[in-house]
Amino acid sequence: MTRSTTSDYHEYPKTLPPDDFWGQVRRTVNGRPVPSEQIDLIVAAVRDGLGLDADDDLLDVACGNGALTNLLAPACRSVVGVDHSDYLVDVAHRNFEDPPRVTFALGDAADHAEHEPEPERFTKVLCYGSFSFFPEGTARRWLTALARRFTQVDRVLLGNLPDRDRAPTFYGDRPGWQAELGDPDAPIGIWRSADEVQDLAAACGWRARLSVMPPRYYASHYRFDAVLERAAG
Ligand SMILES: C[S@@+](CC[C@H](N)C(=O)[O-])C[C@H]1O[C@@H](n2cnc3c(N)ncnc32)[C@H](O)[C@@H]1O
To answer: How many domains are there within the chain?
Structure first.
């Protein structure tokens, strides 16, 4: 399969130093890894949004190289990271695995959700900076399988979603950007409006509560977070 060079998490990370963890998941500004205060903001937002505590067993979906997973591990009882990039999962295994508390597995998000043998062991689910790269069918299968099979999960955080309504200000005069907005293989993936995220969540059994990071967060001008809770009935 041909992959775009800009959203590629299979080959591109191999071109970077093995310990450039934020570079490997493109958490960069002007090509440089974001400062640690920015990572602190993300960790705080995830902990808050999920209400993560010491009794939680977290599933971190599309976890990349596990660098963020690793920072969340102290806030919960256990965490399993899943990602479809064999290279990034290998980086996670080598640097951040600490069984049985912190483990990583290779897999597609939707396939994993549909086939995980013990879905009821998880209490919270995170998908940070990754949901926009799921093709529409994968996104729906994943959310639906979470709702049906992960019966003990009461919150799912979709973090860092690109906001369709703010794409025009983000792109400004750059030509041709409209063609990328619905493309999961484009550099930022699929852009969705708040309404679109709420409708998608509702169609899959979830109610979405949306929030925007504080202005000092480097991507707050075009991204938002969604906390999903089970739709009533
Ligand atoms: C920007 S990185 C984010 C990694 C990590 N969540 C973080 O915030 O540091 C996006 C990740 O999504 C993963 N990904 C994209 N589509 C996926 C899918 N269908 N199933 C599993 N992982 C996927 C990529 O391999 C990549 O590691």
So the answer is: 1
- The residue nearest atom 14 of ligand 1, judged by CA position, is 62
> Which CATH number covers residue 110?
3.40.50.150
Single out the residue of 150, 89, 137 nearest to residue 110, CA to CA. Answer: 137
Structure tokens, 6? 């800009």
Q: Is residue 25 situated within a structural domain? A: no
Nearest CA to ligand 1 atom 26: 64
User: b or e along 172-200 (b: 16 or more beta carbons within 10 Å of the residue's beta carbon)?
Assistant: eeeeebeebbebbbbebbbbbebeebbeb
Ligand 1 proximal residues by C-beta, below 6 Å: 9, 25-26, 62-64, 67-68, 83-85, 88, 108-109, 128-130, 133-134, 138
Cβ atoms of 164 and 193 closer than 8 Å: yes
Ligand 1 atom closest to the CA of 42, numbered from 1? 8
Place of tokens 């965490």: 79
Q: pTM of the full predicted structure?
A: 0.96
Residue that wins the pLDDT comparison between 228 and 232: 228
Structural domain that includes position 91: 36-230
**pLDDT given at position 212:** 97
pLDDT at residue 8, as a whole number: 86
- Angle between helix axes 136-149 and 194-203 (nearest 10 degrees) is 50
